[in-house]
Design goal:
The complex is a heterodimer of chains A (286) and B (323).
Chain A: H1 2-32, H2 39-56, H3 64-84, H4 92-114, E1 128-130, E2 133-135, H5 137-159, H6 161-171, H7 173-178, H8 183-208, H9 215-230, H10 235-252, H11 261-275
Antiparallel strand pairs in A: 1-2
Chain B: H1 2-6, H2 9-27, H3 30-56, H4 64-80, H5 85-107, H6 112-131, E1 142-143, H7 154-182, H8 184-194, H9 196-201, H10 206-232, E2 234-235, H11 237-240, H12 243-256, H13 262-280, H14 288-302, H15 306-314, H16 316-322
Antiparallel strand pairs in B: 1-2
Classes of the chains: A mainly alpha (286), B mainly alpha (323).
């Protein structure tokens, strides 16, 4: 029994990082109705950032996190102006394809540069022993950092002028323009924040598990599952959805072979989409 | 004869398909055949995907699931039940098409980006399911032994037969794409693509039409999937449900021009030629994906109509002749 409890707790810890990744996805959707299919590639970018900062540049492991946020943000803003700006307001097909093209370019470059062999960043954090069960230190620390970043995001959105402007543009772009908000710039900022979240969650995931250039696809799919569980366009929901996914993973692993866990996840995802096509998203619609 | 002049498209396409079939056969050029069969498979994928993307305006990111499932059903029938490949691939086409109809009625309640996400989910779910499905060989997949090619007169002859069948499926794809576009069903789909709510108000039975389009767009890819994996003799989950091939099919549709009949086929052919060039040119072989991505981005941002969209706008009379 305590084994199940422990695996549930661990699932929640890992799930909070899925939630952080999904927040990036859901934020971009909520503000500009664009599904960022380059999300997985950017998560991988965050992973390799940690690898190169920690092994090549000798950075302290967790010192890479602010760097990942900074680089992710700049990269995201650039990405917005290059690939997304022209397709805002066009049929969704166009933005899906534009971001997917970026994904192909990034993954292609990554494969050519770093091949698809697995990488690993050794992280040593002492674990926590409770009732004869050890909780991995990296998992706890990553979950704490994810929670701190989510809190910072909340402050950004609800206690700064920029956050207010982003929310204004999200709810009505034309009206925001009328009151003097430069909406294109605000959109690029929001895209930058979303990408920064993806890259920092990649960095955090890299402290937990080994990764390859192609890992991004799996985490991107997880992010989709999470956003659908939590409500597309709702950052707080994304965090909850991430925890829920972690719970599901933690609960199912003791009872079935590991290979079957993704089947459950994706079946749940499709079922969720079908049974609550509006229900789950309803409270995000203006 | 008069009809041929007024509607030259079916004749042109039949002649092209005949050339496709006969040129490698007459010259006995195996290398050319291998290149053309891949192009033909791509044309089938792109042309059927176009029914969803170009006509109905629904982005199906998981279109490859039809191809992979078709391959699995067909190889299973050939391997376990000793069916011949033609009936096995047709049967798998029917099965996959029926499954798509069922599934379509469910996931087509979603619109826009939600639908696109769901199709990615369906593909991922089925890939994971097949990876764990022991009767289909789990993660290692199904292998055909050499005697599976016996009924077609040995492997060498079988490859030619399969090639001709794939070209026939290509011809069928283009003709059905043309016929659908000219039919009431096609008009309904185009109306859905323009504005679904308005189409529904005007009496287009949108849920039925969408599910039918989804199901029709599953049939030939599944048949060709069966033929193709019969030709390669092996099928395994990551190859059969490769999301990147799925996306490449979208690139082909966009390259040629979504919503046109001939565009996706042209896009598929050009894409395959480009891919082959990039793979063989040493300097580019590592950057094939990068170049495909850059190509897609350029099309999406600057030429959203694709190749045929551009041609039709520049020379409107060609559209009359070809559509």
């Amino acid at each position: 029994m305590s084994g199940i409890l422990a695996s549930v707790v661990d699932g929640v810890l890992v799930g909070s990082i899925y939630g952080l990744a999904a927040m990036g996805l859901t934020l971009i959707w909520g503000v500009m109705r664009v599904i960022n299919l380059a999300h997985g590639a950017i998560i991988v970018l965050g992973m390799f950032l940690l690898y190169f900062l920690a092994t090549a540049a000798g950075f302290p492991i967790y010192g890479a996190i602010p760097v990942a946020i900074g680089i992710g943000f700049v990269f995201g803003v650039a990405l917005y102006w290059i690939a997304v700006h022209r397709v805002i307001g066009q049929p969704e097909l166009m933005s899906l394809l534009a971001t997917f093209a970026v994904n192909m370019i990034l993954i292609g470059l990554g494969t050519a540069l770093w091949s698809t062999s697995p990488y690993n960043v050794p992280v040593r954090v002492p674990g926590l022993r409770v009732a004869g069960y050890t909780f991995t230190g990296t998992h706890i620390l990553a979950a704490v950092i994810a929670a701190v970043i989510a809190g910072a995001l909340y402050l950004l959105f609800y206690h700064t002028r920029i956050g207010k402007a982003i929310r204004a543009v999200a709810s009505n772009r034309d009206a925001a323009e009328l009151v003097g908000i430069p909406s294109a710039q605000i959109l690029s900022l929001a895209f930058g924040v979303g990408v920064a979240l993806a890259s920092v969650s990649g960095t955090l995931i890299a402290t937990l598990f080994p990764f390859t250039v192609l890992s991004g696809e799996a985490y991107q799919l997880k992010s989709f599952v999470v956003t659908v569980l939590g409500g597309l366009g709702n950052p707080a929901g994304a965090l909850l959805g991430g925890v829920a996914l972690g719970l599901i993973e933690g609960l199912t692993t003791p009872f079935m072979p590991v290979d079957w866990v993704p089947v459950v996840e994706f079946a749940l995802f499709v079922l969720c989409l079908i049974t609550f096509p509006r229900g789950i998203f309803a409270f995000t619609k203006a | 004869m008069k009809l041929v002049w007024r509607r030259p498209f079916p004749c042109i396409i039949t002649v092209v398909a005949l050339a496709f079939a006969l040129v490698p056969y007459v010259t006995n050029d195996v290398q050319l055949r291998e290149s053309l069969i891949l192009a033909a498979v791509y044309i089938v994928l792109a042309s059927n995907l176009n029914l969803m993307i170009g006509y109905a305006g629904y982005v199906n990111f998981g279109n490859i699931v039809f191809f992979g499932l078709g391959g699995y059903f067909c190889l299973f029938m050939v391997n376990a039940w000793r069916w011949n490949v033609l009936s096995a691939s047709l049967a798998s086409g029917v099965i996959v098409s029926a499954l798509a109809l069922l599934f379509g009625l469910g996931i087509l309640r979603l619109r826009g980006a939600f639908f696109a996400l769901a199709t990615i989910g369906v593909n991922a779910a089925i890939q994971q399911l097949v990876t764990n499905f022991e009767p289909w060989g789990g993660a290692t997949g199904i292998y055909l032994s050499l005697d599976a090619y016996g009924p077609l007169g040995g492997p060498r002859q079988a490859l030619w037969t399969v090639y001709l069948l794939v070209v026939a499926a290509t011809l069928a794809s283009l003709l059905s794409s043309y016929a659908i576009k000219r039919s009431k069903f096609g008009l309904g789909l185009l109306a859905i693509g323009q504005n679904e709510s308005a189409a529904a108000v005007l009496g287009v039975p949108t849920p039925l039409y969408k599910a039918l389009a989804y199901s029709v767009s599953a049939f030939l890819p599944a048949v060709v999937g069966g033929l193709y994996f019969y030709k390669t003799g092996i099928i395994e989950p990551s190859g059969a449900f490769s999301l990147s091939l799925s996306i490449e099919a979208i690139v082909m549709v966009m390259l040629g021009g979504q919503g046109t009949v001939i565009g996706p086929a042209l896009g598929a052919f050009l894409y395959e030629e480009m891919r082959r060039f990039l793979l063989t040119a040493a300097a580019f072989s590592n950057f094939q994906l990068v170049i495909a991505g850059a190509l897609l981005l350029t099309i999406v941002l600057f030429v959203p109509g694709g190749l045929m969209g551009f041609v039709y706008r520049r020379w409107p009379r060609t559209q009359k002749a070809l559509e």
